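Repro:
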Amino acid sequence: MTVNGALHHVEIYVRNLAATRQFYDWLLVDHLGYHVYQEWASGISYILDEGTYIVFVQSERLAVPYNRTNVGLNHLAFNMIGQAAVDRLRTELDTLAYQELYAARYPFAGGPDHYALYLEDPDRIKIEIVAVGD
């Protein structure tokens, strides 16, 4: 069902499409139920339940690195069902080369009533995984 005002898609330019794909295949496909939606030489998109999708495109302008504190995108936040699932994702993250953020304050870095894991993708875009429901 199409919802008026729902976000259609987000497109993000990246420094290294192969590294980005490896990260988002792990996060979105392996853990959050997305699947590859579109794929071409310089990009890939992932979709969840035929709704909003996320697009990653290889940038040709690599001189200025991404910084989430500049004007623009700060982070992407995703729901994950249950605190135990977020805990398992964190345990798996420890075995990979991706950076957890705010590890000393896990799982309440976002506040006492906000159970979440924060990490960075290969371009240092902050990713927030929020435990919801059970």
